[in-house]
Design goal:
Chain A is of the alpha/beta class. In chain A, about 25% of the residues lie in helices and about 25% in strands. Chain A has a single domain, classed as 3-Layer(aba) Sandwich (Rossmann fold), CATH 3.40.50. Chain A has 3 helices and 8 strands, in the order E-H-E-H-E-E-H-E-E-E-E. Chain A has a 5-stranded parallel β-sheet. A 3-stranded antiparallel β-sheet of chain A has the order 1-8-7. In chain A, helix 1 packs across helix 2. Chain A is globular, with a radius of gyration of 16 Å. With about 325 residues, chain B is an alpha/beta fold. Helices cover about 35% and strands about 15% of the residues of chain B. Chain B is built from 12 helices and 9 strands. Chain B has a 5-stranded parallel β-sheet. In chain B, strand 5, helix 6 and strand 6 form a beta-alpha-beta unit. In chain B, helix 1 crosses helix 12. The radius of gyration of chain B is 20 Å and the shape is globular. The N and C termini of chain B lie close together (about 10 Å). The chains are: A alpha/beta (about 190), B alpha/beta (about 325). Chains A and B meet through strand 4, helix 3 and strand 7 of A and helix 1 of B.
């Protein structure tokens, strides 16, 4: 048994500040809040989308809608990166056509999740624009995709695991990098 | 990205019957179907999950609901599907079932969905071909996708299966729907009572399926039930009539509005279809707000999507 090497990248305060900065960037680049919506990619993109929307609403007095997207059925790597994903419903409680959608995920890596999410969103309507917000950009892209709003950029290798833990899902708020592979059944994507 | 919730894998190559599934398998199918049901409410009711998969629907016995439901499920998952009916196949020219299926295999399907009048036909085929086989009803044996969609409908309406009291009324002996439902509901911890003409109750049903047999009137049987599943008389499977007449059957075993006045307010009325209106179900009952018959049909698509998806997923995964 090797001891896992854990490196703390963002703590609770760090995540809070990163989301606040991202929310203010979103507002300054998309001043028309009536046509703005956040869509979180399940699982951890959803609480992040909710927190971003809350940041925007608190500073602007707006009521920006939040949706959630399950992209499992659009993936090109089911069975490769994801042996047994649970399929959860997608909920987009607003008309997408004409909206500016801020797509939210926890970690941007290969770009395959985002590719799948873009396909999924297009099946629901024709947004005016789709922007991408991620808490962590860890590099190692396999597709020509980039994020518009980034909380933290990390230099990583394929052997690293970037773990985003959120209070809504886990016990605490933090982002850590480990060198140890996850045991089977708890796979993290790229 | 980040981590994704995982379940235990679906460990079956085929879906041949409820008897081969355990509680975890059933829950995985029902949970996956919850995610699938949302796709049917989208404007574009299609996801690319099974692109490039070939699915053969081979119905060697008449079917409306099940065949349509599988076809819609396949299209919503972007699979390529072919449908073959008994009347249009070479089975009518004397070809054996296995020969017909081996010829179908030349088209390299990933899944073969089979309905057949002989109990065990899908099990036989599954041993001889390199494709996943789904039993869409075999003789008087099993109809697993019907039982799963019934369970989904009950769970969606009443929130659980465990501890519910469920009545199956009608031709229990010749009904594969009854058989699959008894197996599934008992595995999920529901309490099952069967009721029907004595000529249509299999010998030893109480021990064989761990269910109760009701002796008495339909009124009494209904009094404490959460769900009542009405079954059709399987006329096509009866060699000689086991009943004096439809009218007499209806008097004793038909569900009417009068019955509904005395059942608990949340009791669901279910029927796998096709309904013989005025025989096992009064027309007003079929159309009442207690009836979830059309929900069963709608849920069938999501449940079959879940099964196809679970069976078609690429096998053991690499990590990372």
């Amino acid at each position: 048994m090797t001891q896992p090497q854990e490196r703390l990248v963002l703590d609770k305060q760090g995540i809070r500040r990163a989301l606040k900065k991202m929310a203010s960037e979103v507002v300054s680049e998309n001043p028309d809040l009536d046509t703005l919506a956040f869509v979180g990619i399940r699982t951890r993109g959803v609480p992040l989308a909710e927190r971003l929307a809350k940041n925007v609403d608190e500073s602007e007095g707006s009521d920006v809608p939040v949706g959630m997207l399950d992209i499992t059925l659009y993936r090109d790597d089911v069975g490769i990166a994801y042996p047994n994903p649970v399929i959860k419903p997608t909920r987009l409680p607003f008309e997408l056509t004409g909206m500016t959608i801020i797509l939210v995920d926890d970690v941007l890596n290969t770009g395959r999740t985002v590719r799948a999410a873009l396909d999924a969103l297009m099946d629901f309507g024709r947004p005016e624009a789709i922007r991408l917000a991620v808490l962590v950009d860890r590099g190692l892209r396999e597709l020509p995709i980039r994020a518009d709003y980034v909380g933290k950029t990390l230099e990583t290798t394929r052997e690293d695991d970037v773990l985003v833990q959120l209070e809504e899902v886990e016990a605490s708020d933090r982002v850590i990098v480990t060198k140890i592979r996850k045991p089977a059944g708890e796979v993290h994507d790229g | 990205m980040g981590s994704v919730p995982m379940t235990k894998p679906f460990k079956h190559r085929h879906l041949l019957g409820i008897e081969l599934l355990d509680r975890d398998d059933i829950e995985l199918i029902l949970d996956t179907a919850v995610g699938m049901s949302e796709i049917g409410r989208r404007r574009i009711k299609k996801v690319p999950a099974l692109r490039g998969m070939t699915i053969v629907n081979f119905f060697a016995e008449p079917s409306t609901r099940t065949k349509l439901s599988f076809e819609v499920a396949e299209k919503r998952l972007s699979a390529d599907s072919l449908s073959l009916a008994a009347s249009s196949s070479s089975l009518t020219k004397g070809e054996s079932l296995l020969d017909t299926v081996k010829n179908i295999m030349a088209m390299s399907p990933d899944v073969v969905i089979l309905r057949h009048r002989i109990s065990g036909a899908p099990h036989h085929i599954a041993e001889h071909i390199d494709a996943a086989v789904i039993n869409a009803g075999d003789g008087t044996h099993e109809h697993p996708t019907q039982a799963l969609l019934d369970a989904y409908t009950i769970r969606e309406r009443l929130g659980r299966l465990e501890g519910l009291r469920i009545l199956l009324c009608g031709d229990i002996a010749h009904s594969r729907v009854a058989r699959s439902n008894m197996l599934l509901l008992r595995k999920m911890g529901a309490e099952v009572t069967v009721f029907g003409p004595y000529t249509m109750i299999p010998m030893g049903v109480e021990e064989a399926f761990d269910v109760k047999l009701h002796r008495g009137s339909l009124e009494e049987a209904l009094s404490d039930k959460d769900v009542v599943m009405m079954l059709r008389i399987q006329k096509e499977r009866l060699g000689e009539p086991l009943l004096p007449s439809d009218r007499e059957y209806s008097m004793h075993f038909g569900l009417t509005m009068k019955h509904l006045a005395h059942v608990r307010p949340q009791t669901l009325v279910m029927h796998p279809g096709p309904v013989n209106r005025g025989v096992e179900l009064a027309p007003e009952v079929a159309d009442s707000d207690r009836s979830v018959i059309l929900e069963q049909v709608e849920n069938g698509v999501a449940v079959r999507m879940a099964i196809l998806y679970l069976l078609c997923r690429p096998g053991e995964a690499a990590d990372g």
